[in-house]
Design brief:
Blueprint (H helix, E strand, L loop, with lengths): L6 H6 L4 H15 L8 H15 L2 H13 L4 H15 L1 H15 L3
Helix pairs in contact: 3-4, 3-5, 4-6, 5-6
Length: about 110
């Protein structure tokens, strides 16, 4: 089962309480917990691909970290980015490989 997320409340709780409720309780609470329909690992791969394609690097780094916790290996993260480079942009891959190194280190 997915771990209870509090990132929204921790970072934006006072500024945007409804947004943080939707983020923490609905997105990460209700949607991510539907592991019978799609595993957390698969959800992480999909989310990494979506954030990569949109060039959302701060969120991408967070989801690479979450993906690592969900069992995505460094080699798989590199392969995901290599595949996506052809469909979403070579420069995005260059930018993302640095994030992979930050998240996974020298593993």
């Amino acid at each position: 089962m997915a771990e209870k997320q509090t990132a929204g409340r921790d970072k934006l709780g006072k500024l945007a309480p409804k947004f943080t409720e939707l983020n923490d309780d609905v997105l990460f609470g209700e949607v991510w917990s539907r592991e019978e329909q799609l595993s957390a690992r698969d959800r992480s791969m999909i989310t990494i691909a979506a954030l990569f394609s949109a060039g959302q690097y701060p969120q991408l780094k967070s989801h690479l970290t979450l993906g690592k916790a969900h069992g995505i290996t460094k080699e798989e993260a590199v392969e995901i980015v290599t595949q996506l480079a052809f469909y979403c942009g070579w420069p995005k891959a260059w930018s993302t490989f640095g994030l992979i190194e930050e998240v996974y280190g020298e593993e």
